[in-house]
Structures are given as C-alpha cells and as structure tokens.
Amino acid sequence: MVLVGLSLLCAAAAISSPAAGQSASGSARMWEQLISGAATLRLPTGFLKAMPPDFVQFEFDDLRTYAAEYHPGEHRMVLNRTLSFHAAGRDVRPLTTMTSKELEVLYHELFHAYIDYLESKESGGVLPGPEQGLIAFAREMQVCRYREVLITPVIQRSHETEVRYLSDPEAWEALNETWAVFVGWAIWNQLEIEKKGRRSMNDTAQLSGEWVSRFRRAIEAGEFRGYYAPQDPDERRVTQKRFLAPGSQLSLEESQRLMKQVLGLPEKIIEAAAKAVGQGKNISVGRPCQVEPS
C-alpha cells in the first residue's frame, strides 16, 4: 500500500509540475510582452525591469468595474478578458491596441506589483540602493503622512472633511493607492499629450511644458489622493472605502520621488514641475518626521 501511495504521489507531481511550469513561463512571457509594448509606446519600463519576469502571475476574468486588479502577497494580476488577445483570456493584448484609459489602469496595477515586490524583499537586504531607498521612503511616509489623514465622508462633498487616525495596514493602503493614482494619471496624460503632438514628451519642450501645466492644475484641484478599506467591521458595513480629502493628497516630495524612480522623467521636467507648483495652497511639502527603528 505504501508503494502504491508513493507511486500515486510521484505521478501527481509529474502531472502538476509541468502545468505549474507552463503557468510560470506563460506569465513570464506576458511580462516580457508588456515591457516590449511599453517601450514601443515610450512608457516607463525601468521599474518593470527591476522585477523578475516570473514575479507577477497573470490571470484573466470578466471584471465588471475595472480593467485590471492586483492582489498583493499573492503576486497575482487579474486582467479583464477585454485586455487579452481576441478576448480569449490567454495572452495579454498588445499595448499598442489599448486605449489611454486602459493603460492608465494597467499601470496603476503594475505599480502595485512593484510595491509588492519591494515589500517582499525589503527585509532581506537584496534590493539595489535605489529600490531600497524607495521602500524606506515609503515606510517613512506611511508614518509621517498617512497615519493621520483627512477623509471625505461623503465623496460627492469634497469640502466636508474629517480627521482619521489610521492603522498600519490602512496607512499602507492609503499610501499605495495615492501613489498609484499619480502613476496612472502620469501615464494617461503622457499618452494624450504625445498622441496630440506626435512626438516624445521627454524630448520636446512644448509637450513637457504641457505635462507640467497639467500636473500643476491637478495639484491645485486635489486630484492625487487615494483611499483605504476600513478595518473596523462596523465602519465596513457603512462603506467599503474611505477616500482621502484634497488636504491629504500626494506631497511634492513624494511626487518627485515617483517622477524620478518610477516614471523615469528627465531631471529638467522634475525641476520644472516643482517650480510650477511652488508653495501652492493644495500641495504639501511634508514636515520633519522621526521614524522609530522597528
């Protein structure tokens, strides 16, 4: 009976191992396709290349609300079937066939994957200097900016705000969503500007100037703010998400970090963006913060 059991286990392993390998290789292939398509569209690829090709596991499903969603910890990216080749749910569609909105949402989720990757490696001392610096900065902002936030209890009335003190998971999610909102915004606007100008935004002063102007207007409108899912069960019965108020939107320091390390923007554009915003009424330049070592 033991021999029979061992034989069955070996047979099951022989069957499941190739399937698992095919799934991993399929995800790695789609990852390379994404990077190639992004390069063709002149979209950021540096932070994507920092992750191993098989880190993100791709799936397709009939998503009703979003074009994509990411599940941290599981390293799982779920794409709407409409983003697959011929809507067959097997291979990702070429990025060159996607709309600006689809690419905005996709990059929003790809950024979540990047933070998930940094989080999975931050304690092992294996991250290169820039990546280690970014995750350390994110932890600092988690404490300094996202533990105490302003929220809009009624999303339609953004002028009505309340102060909330967030738990560590809530603050981390609020940071992640805020940063991802900015990354998605940057991608959409780059695509729209370059579509109109038919040239690279980074190499053209007029187009980069338009991007900077859009950034300033978005800051003034308080657009760069995320949300978090309340941990309290009673609050979750009232709402699944709490949206941050304009007063707790992305800070100038955070935006500059993301422009450089994630978006890969030239220094001249980053400096112009900071100068354009200046000390505007709706941009926070941050405040001194002491983070106790864990």
Distance, first to last CA: 52 Å
Radius of gyration: 21 Å
Average pLDDT confidence is: 84
Which class do the helix and strand fractions yield? mainly alpha
Count the E strands: 7
Number of separate helices: 9
Unreliable residue stretches: 1-22
Short description:
The protein has 294 residues and is mainly alpha-helical. The chain is built from nine helices and seven strands; from the N terminus they run H-H-E-E-E-H-H-E-E-H-H-E-H-E-H-H.
Write a structural description.
The protein is mostly helical. Helix content is 52%, strand content 9%. It contains 9 helices and 7 strands; from the N terminus they run ααβββααββααβαβαα. It has helices spanning 2-40, 46-49, 100-121, 129-144, 168-197, 205-221, 233-236, 252-261, 267-277, and strands at residues 57-61, 68-71, 76-80, 148-151, 162-165, 227-228, 242-243. The strands form 3 sheets. A 3-stranded mixed sheet has the order 1-3-2. A two-stranded antiparallel sheet has the order 4-5. The chain has a two-stranded antiparallel sheet with strand order 6-7. Strand 2 and strand 3 form a beta hairpin. Helix 3 (100-121) packs antiparallel against helix 5, helix 4 crosses helix 5 and helix 5 (168-197) packs antiparallel against helix 6 (205-221). The longest helix has 39 residues, at 2-40.
